[in-house]
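User: Let's play a game. I give you a shape written as tokens, and you guess the letters that built it. Ready? Here's round one.
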């Protein structure tokens, strides 16, 4: 954009140099102007859906080598749009990869198919899982009785070399998923799971959790852990003795105040919105 100012400067309402400086920040949102730049640079056509009742916005280049479909789900957010054919192909390829992993690498064999079918498509199993009840008919279908463990092995070796297929069948019979439902979806050739998006979403949730908690400074009212003789007690700071490094703490379990050194106190993090709430006894 900087090298082709004449082509894009009129599209920006703000000062062009300030705008360029702002969008160099990787956390800054961009939009239609930047898509036009990408379209010209990489020969990509963008088709952007803003509403179901309106025709899509089309950003075209002279000789496109690829078409990218997006949906504007917010003022600045764009999500990928896939055709049903593309999704079917992605789901099938994904299931092949996970099938090789769970059937061959983890040596779970055809029991993986039984687990996926039960977890995703068997309503009776879903009900059984919710109530955590044994289903005798299902146990017979899984043929648990036909699988035998080698009791001649030492006890520790039995734990290590326990038949994983037996574990799948036993878990299913008890209404317990043998592996996460996310994995079951990736094993189903008719379902596409966006693994990359799931990982990004989990990372974002963890970051939000860490951002929402603060460690208050040592002052009357804050909650803390007190380490006394290798025991951990929960208490609240009542007073800080100015002449020494000692702190007066009310310990809930002991139902009394104790004077301890500040070295044996660990402040408990609290949600940011509770950072100013102090408790006294």
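Assistant: Ready! My guess for every position:
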């Amino acid at each position: 954009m900087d090298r082709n100012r004449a082509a894009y400067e009129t599209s920006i309402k703000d000062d062009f140099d300030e705008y360029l400086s702002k969008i160099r920040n990787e956390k800054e949102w961009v939009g239609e102007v930047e898509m036009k730049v990408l379209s010209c640079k990489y020969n990509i056509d963008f088709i952007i859906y803003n509403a179901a009742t309106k025709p899509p916005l089309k950003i075209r280049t002279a000789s496109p080598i690829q078409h990218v479909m997006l949906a504007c789900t917010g003022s600045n957010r764009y999500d990928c749009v896939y055709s049903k054919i593309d999704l079917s192909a992605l789901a099938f390829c994904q299931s092949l990869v996970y099938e090789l992993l769970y059937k061959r690498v983890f040596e779970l064999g055809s029991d993986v198919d039984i687990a996926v079918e039960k977890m995703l498509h068997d309503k009776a199993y879903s009900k059984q899982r919710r109530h955590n009840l044994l289903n005798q008919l299902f146990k017979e279908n899984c043929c648990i009785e036909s699988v035998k463990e080698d009791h001649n092995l030492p006890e520790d070796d039995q734990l290590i070399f326990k038949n994983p297929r037996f574990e799948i069948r036993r878990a299913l019979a008890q209404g317990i998923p043998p592996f996460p439902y996310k994995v079951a979806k990736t094993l189903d050739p008719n379902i596409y799971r966006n693994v990359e998006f799931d990982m990004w979403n989990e990372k974002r949730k963890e970051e939000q959790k860490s951002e929402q908690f603060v460690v208050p400074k040592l002052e009357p009212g804050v909650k803390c852990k007190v380490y006394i003789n290798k025991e951990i007690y929960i208490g609240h700071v009542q007073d800080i003795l100015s002449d020494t490094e000692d702190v007066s703490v009310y310990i809930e379990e002991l139902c009394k105040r104790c004077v301890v050194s500040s070295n044996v106190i660990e402040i408990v993090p609290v949600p940011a919105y509770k950072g100013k709430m102090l408790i006294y006894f």
